[in-house]
Design a protein that fits this description.
The complex is a heterodimer.
Chain A (H helix, E strand, L loop, with lengths): L1 H19 L14 H28 L2 H33 L7 H22 L3 H18 L3 H4 L9 H9 L6 H36 L1
Chain B lengths: L4 H22 L1 H21 L6 H19 L2 H8 L3 H7 L2 H30 L7 H29 L5 H24 L9 H26 L2
Helix pairs in contact in B: 1-6, 2-3, 2-6, 3-8, 4-7, 6-7, 6-9, 7-8, 7-9, 8-9
Classes of the chains: A mainly alpha, B mainly alpha.
């Protein structure tokens, strides 16, 4: 319970601190502040994906419908955060590179994640029986989970990345992790993670109640 | 599980032979895939005219036509088992491994058959010059193995789900993305004069993809096939 108060306080504090604490980045200026929302959102999108695959595997092991419900919940939250990351990334891309979308490796891999989530929910909607749906969607997510990481070996060969991870933050050192930047980023990451668990708990409870009402 | 490797292999071959025989009687998947490929290729070729396209565009066109043609028919062998209600008989008659590798082999043969027909037509209709034949053939083979390996499992998912239509392509394409990119890159090298780099890194990625997809599919297939 206590951690929900922490999450709320942190989220509020971070929303303010992002605009006050870290200095604007030398090269791109004020636009750099989107970093504090974009990166945690992308990470949470990935966390949702991993949790969803893990719950799917647990379902296949135990055949407990609760695991399937949790897998779907993790995927829903993951998809939401991935969409947020895609949009904030595109805005940042427009400001710094001049266009919303340029098939940077990061943009390609986030598109792959979006497509998988989309396919996952299309599959879930297409299967009416609960057990079959749980089984098939878990299998699909696990197959995607072993194949899509190959993109990280494939894409860098295609285009050099302009993503700030390579060119700004570590490369030139212009956006170095000074104490105010690191503190704000750490707090933002923690608050997003807590928000994820909170949302997960809420959605899982709502799903459980819906199941009870339907049966 | 059967006792010896030879009996296991003969069971796989028996299933493969059964699928081939069934296919030659109706020719449903065969005609779907071939005609889809032919119409797409014709549409592309007619719209472009006879002008020489850059190698990069040709490589993209080639794999896009091949991927979508394959996706139009590769799910058929599993869907047919579900539709004619023979899936249950198959479940009783033999183990999951045999079914998985039998279907995998059938799909691979179907795709290779399509390529024997599609590749020469593509080269002729779009005036394509191949500069590195061995690399070209290797890439097509590795690409087909990867394509079939990941789509065989997805085909079984679609068949068990009991849904027809676009779902097979929707589920397959995100998973095929890591395959499409290196395929297009190496194919472009084959079609460009003077490029002598063998592209071994890409070939290794393609082989890794096929290996991972085949193994992953084999491990996950029992969960789809068994109730």
């Amino acid at each position: 319970m206590w951690w929900k108060y922490l999450a709320g306080t942190l989220l509020a504090a971070v929303s303010v601190a992002v605009f006050i604490l870290p200095p604007p980045q030398a090269q791109i200026g004020e636009a750099s502040r989107i970093f504090f929302f974009h990166v945690p959102a992308a990470l949470i999108g990935f966390v949702g994906f991993v949790f969803s695959a893990v719950y799917g595997a647990r379902y296949l092991q135990r055949r407990d419908p609760a695991f399937d419900r949790k897998a779907a919940v993790a995927a829903e939250i993951g998809l939401t955060f991935t969409i947020i990351a895609t949009f904030t990334g595109a805005i940042f891309s427009r400001v710094t590179w001049g266009m919303f979308w340029n098939w940077d490796p990061r943009q390609t891999s986030i598109l792959a994640v979006l497509l998988i989530y989309g396919a996952y929910f299309a599959l879930r909607q297409a299967v009416p029986f609960r057990d079959t749906r749980a089984r098939l969607s878990a299998v699909y997510l696990l197959l995607a989970g072993v194949l899509v990481p190959l993109l990280f070996f494939v894409l860098p060969r295609l285009y050099p990345s302009l993503h700030p991870n390579n060119s700004l933050v570590s490369g030139g050192g212009e956006f170095a992790m000074t104490l105010p930047v690191g503190l704000t980023f750490g707090a933002s990451l923690l608050s997003f993670l807590l928000l994820y668990f909170w949302l997960h708990q809420l959605a899982d409870r709502a799903g459980r109640i819906t199941e009870k009402l339907e049966s | 599980m059967p006792s010896g490797t030879s009996s296991w292999a003969s069971k796989v071959l028996a299933l493969l032979a059964k699928d081939l025989r069934a296919e030659f009687r109706t020719r449903y998947a065969l005609s779907a895939v071939f005609l889809f490929a032919l119409t797409t290729l014709a549409a592309v070729s007619v719209s472009l005219g006879a002008g020489g396209l850059p190698a990069a565009y040709l490589a993209v066109l080639f794999w896009v036509i091949l991927f979508f043609s394959a996706l139009s028919g590769l799910a058929q062998s599993f869907i047919k088992e579900a539709e004619t209600k023979t899936a249950v008989t198959l479940q009783l008659a033999t183990s999951e491994d045999v079914v998985y590798f039998g279907k995998w082999g059938f799909n691979l043969l179907l795709l290779l058959g399509l390529e024997v027909f599609l590749v020469p037509l593509f080269l002729v209709l779009l005036n394509v010059e191949v500069y590195q034949w061995w690399l070209f053939v290797t890439v097509i083979f590795l690409g087909s193995a990867g394509l079939v390996s990941s789509t065989t499992l997805i085909a079984s998912v679609v068949a068990v789900a009991g849904v027809r239509g676009a779902l097979f392509s929707v589920l397959s394409l995100p998973v095929l993305l890591p395959l499409l990119v290196p395929l297009v890159q190496v194919t472009e090298k084959c079609l460009t004069p003077g490029v002598m780099t063998p592209g071994t890194a890409e070939l290794r990625i393609l082989a890794a993809y096929a290996g991972i997809a085949l193994t992953g599919g084999w491990l996950l297939f029992p969960f789809v096939w068994r109730e």
